[in-house]
Design goal:
Layout: H1 3-29, H2 31-77, H3 84-116, H4 123-133, H5 136-148, H6 153-179, H7 186-217, H8 231-246, H9 250-268, H10 273-283, H11 286-302, H12 310-315, H13 317-354, H14 360-367, H15 369-385, H16 389-414, H17 416-441, H18 447-450, H19 453-473, H20 482-506, H21 512-516, H22 521-533
Helix pairs in contact: 1-6, 1-11, 2-4, 2-5, 2-6, 2-7, 2-8, 2-9, 2-10, 3-4, 3-5, 3-8, 4-7, 5-7, 6-7, 8-16, 9-10, 9-16, 11-13, 11-15, 13-14, 13-15, 13-19, 13-20, 14-17, 15-17, 16-17, 19-20
Transmembrane segments: 12-32, 44-64, 85-110, 122-142, 163-184, 190-211, 232-257, 289-308, 320-345, 365-386, 393-411, 417-435, 456-479, 485-505
Pfam family, one: Polysacc_synt
Protein name: Membrane protein YabM
């Protein structure tokens, strides 16, 4: 790879990381006004559709573009011209056949799926979702080709554009339901329309960028093979694309299992129809919280993971081990502090975001899954760096079935608490599977020995004491207004987070070399070194 291409790739990867972070924050954030406007029942309807739409988004954003970019990069490195017959048509044919079959399965099974979840009104929402899958091939092809040319900015811009359109349509639909005569079932249809128009916006943005870059694709010799053949692309595009997409679908598969099993299990054991659906809506309040904390914990950690590869492990073994240890330590410290805050403040957070404290006990149990989800995402990224994409995809599939079985066994007797326990157990299993694989690949890593347990216990204890002091001395009557509650939570979370990390640094939770790998390392080193000057 040329130095210029490497620079473009590094800058593009940074843009992709920023876009991914903003997109996930938007994805988690819009669900709060959605629930506020439509209530737990509206939130329930949306969450019954969202997992399938989320799968479509992951295929269009991460899965197939990653596979196509690998093929594009390979072809361009061999100075082959990307012609219609030899490149675009075969890949497009593979994508179209796959998505047509997937759409057909969803369309045909829509009545059965709606009957399974006892929500016949969602049949046409599921069938419209099937149609959305037919538009993925074009957007995936554009993204993949541009990424294969080391043009990451188009994917970043299209991702933000797509998310803004989705959020705008969904919130507008929620307003119509809340303030007009639209049925609450319309939220499901609106979610599908939002995804469709979001994909259209992404396609337009990518097309503009592609037109600007197409001269580069036409600069190669015309004597390249121009024959049409699907076979050379099947394994790379189809298998690698699906596996790569699955690596971004951990939380989606958890939500899919809940969408299919939660309400039916409650109904089968005597719960009322409306009560069961509202309870599912309450349980789904935990999803944006899980997503926000997981994004925060994993994103900061993953910024310090360079492009890990088998080659780098052989030539720069000590550096690879240091990067991996630092990523895990950073994610672990962040998520432990966040979970302590969530456990202590969840009733107030629940009341601020969702207007009441219903389900706070069960949601506290659900928040424990954030630890395993964050560390599993960091671990799966490490494994992907070594080329274990298919293996991590298999682990995620196993997680889905564990969650499914857990729901079947626990929800009938424990209700929402059973679903929370099943989520925690399934993500714990995923974390253990990934760590076993990492231990096999990096036997000298010893993550548990790298954690400064004294540092984490002291910092966690100080944080717990600090938050409890706030809760003890702030009169509850002051928190009757959501505005004052917002100010209170922001003050506690911001100040508590600072105190927590200062103690992590002062108690030497990181080595000096590890701190140098983190963003704002100069400030972190200065804070950490103050302990030695006292």
């Amino acid at each position: 790879m040329k130095e210029n291409d490497t620079n473009r790739l590094v800058k593009g990867a940074l843009w992709l990381s920023i876009a991914g972070l903003l997109s996930k924050i938007l994805s988690a954030g819009y669900r709060i006004p959605l629930q506020n406007l439509t209530g737990d029942m509206g939130f329930y309807i949306y969450q019954q559709i969202y997992p399938l739409l989320g799968i479509a988004t992951m295929l269009a954003l991460y899965g197939f573009p990653s596979a196509i970019s690998a093929v594009t990069s390979r072809e361009l490195s061999q100075e082959k011209r990307l012609t219609w017959n030899s490149f675009y048509a075969p890949i497009l044919a593979i994508l179209c056949i796959f998505h047509f079959l997937l759409a057909a399965v969803i369309w045909i099974s829509a009545p059965l799926l709606a009957e399974t979840i006892n929500e016949a009104s969602l049949i046409w929402s599921y069938r419209l979702t099937a149609i959305v899958f037919l538009f993925i091939p074009v957007v995936a092809l554009f993204r993949g080709v541009l990424q294969g040319m080391y043009q990451m900015i188009p994917t970043a811009v299209s991702q933000i554009g797509e998310q803004l359109v989705r959020v705008g349509i969904i919130i507008s639909a929620a307003c119509l339901v809340a303030f007009s005569s639209y049925s609450i079932d319309w939220i499901g249809m609106a979610a599908v329309y939002a995804t469709f128009f979001g994909i259209c916006m992404a396609t337009i943005i990518l097309l503009v960028f592609y037109v600007k870059e197409r001269n580069q694709l036409q600069s190669f010799p015309k004597n390249s093979d121009n024959s049409f053949s699907i076979k050379p692309f099947i394994s790379t595009v189809l298998i690698l694309g699906i596996a790569a997409a699955m690596n971004h679908m951990t939380l989606l598969f958890i939500q899919l299992a809940d969408a299919i099993t939660f309400v039916p299990q409650l109904l089968e054991f005597g719960w009322g129809n409306i009560e069961a659906k509202e309870l599912k809506g309450v349980f789904d309040r935990g999803q944006p919280l899980i997503q926000l904390v997981t994004v925060l914990g994993s994103s900061i950690a993953l910024t310090i993971l360079p492009m890990i590869s088998e080659k780098k492990l052989k030539t720069e073994k000590l550096h690879v081990y240091t990067y991996v240890r630092t990523a895990f330590l950073t994610g672990f410290y962040i998520v432990i502090g966040a979970v302590i805050g969530l456990l202590l403040l969840l009733p107030e957070i629940n009341r601020l975001l969702f207007q009441n404290e219903q389900g706070s006990i069960e949601l506290r149990v659900l928040m424990l899954s954030v630890v395993f989800a964050t560390l599993a995402i960091i671990g799966s990224t490490v494994l992907q760096g070594f080329g274990y994409i298919k293996r991590t995809a298999l682990f995620i599939a196993i997680t889905f079935f564990i969650k499914w079985i857990g729901n079947q066994l626990l929800i009938p007797n424990l209700g929402m608490m059973g679903a929370a326990i099943a989520t925690v157990c399934s993500l714990l299993c995923l974390f253990l599977l990934i760590m076993m694989e990492i231990r096999r690949k990096l036997p000298e890593l010893h993550i548990s020995c790298s954690i400064q347990w004294k540092s984490i216990f002291v910092a966690a204890g100080i944080l717990t004491f600090y938050v409890c002091i706030w809760k003890l001395f702030i009169p509850q009557i002051w928190l009757g207004s959501r505005l004052f509650l917002l100010i209170y939570l922001m003050a506690v979370c911001f100040s508590g987070g600072i105190i927590y990390f200062i103690f992590i640094l002062r108690m030497q939770g990181f080595t000096k070399h590890q701190l140098q790998l983190l963003p704002k390392s100069t400030l972190l080193l200065r804070l950490a070194e103050k302990r030695n000057k006292l």
